[in-house]
Amino acid sequence: MGITKKRKVANAKVEPEKLYSLGDGMALVKEVNTAKFDASVDLHIKLGVDPRKADQAIRGTVTLPHGTGKTKKVLVLCTPDKEEEAKAAGADYVGLDEYVLKIQQGWTDIDVIIAAPNVMAQVGRVGRILGPRGLMPNPKSGTVTPNVGNAVKDVKGGKITFRVDKYGIIHSTVGRVSFSSDKLEENARELLTMVNKLKPSSAKGIYMQTLSVASTMSPGIKLDIKSIG
């Protein structure tokens, strides 16, 4: 399939070797988006780390000031005494055995799973299914917690988790193309500040190596890391 006329026009607007400031890059990504839907805007951060080393396998959470623009479907796995708290906080699905069974049967139509610590033995039974999809609850990301209500509110309020992949890259959504470029820039700064804070002391050389932004159907735009300071 050949490249579309719209995409050709979009590609022509992006200078491939130019490093754009964060603000200019966010304005440009809105301009060159060719999708007919409200596409997500993603930041790609290449880090100078070795993800195979435990202390350099960077992962964390951050609350984007303007949210992601997508309402996340949240499943809370807990004992009956926590169910009301989870429902009141806005969880989409709440329960335990029936959902563990559904997941075993192949159901993964959720974005985030929050689990109370006392049910992790049951959750472990579906770890092989949830792990590869990035859905496995984890204390580091705040998704294994006795305070299930607060965790649901955080996720619904724009809290995201990120982790470095095996190539040393973090891919993370910072909003939608319908957001103003200012909001996209503020969300991106929040994420980058958090990634910087997590720099491991054992990482050698340049920590943040390259940075780019793209929407679901747009060319990638290289960003000038120096413009973030």
Keywords:
229 residues; alpha/beta; Ribulose 1,5 Bisphosphate Carboxylase/Oxygenase; Rossmann fold; four-stranded antiparallel beta sheet; three-stranded parallel beta sheet; 8 helices; 9 strands; 31% helix
3D structure, described in words:
The protein has 229 residues and is of the alpha/beta class. It has 2 domains: 16-68 and 160-228, Ribulose 1,5 Bisphosphate Carboxylase/Oxygenase (2-Layer Sandwich), CATH 3.30.190; 74-157, 3-Layer(aba) Sandwich (Rossmann fold), CATH 3.40.50. 31% of the residues lie in helices and 21% in strands. The protein is built from 8 helices and 9 strands. It has helices spanning 5-13, 22-31, 80-88, 97-104, 120-124, 127-130, 148-156, 181-197; strands at 40-47, 59-63, 74-77, 93-95, 112-115, 159-163, 169-176, 208-215, 221-222. The protein has a 4-stranded antiparallel β-sheet, covered by helices on one side. A hairpin with a 5-residue loop joins strand 8 (208-215) and strand 9. The longest helix is centred in the C-terminal third of the chain and has 17 residues, at 181-197. It is globular, with a radius of gyration of 19 Å. It starts with a helix and ends in a 7-residue tail after the last strand.
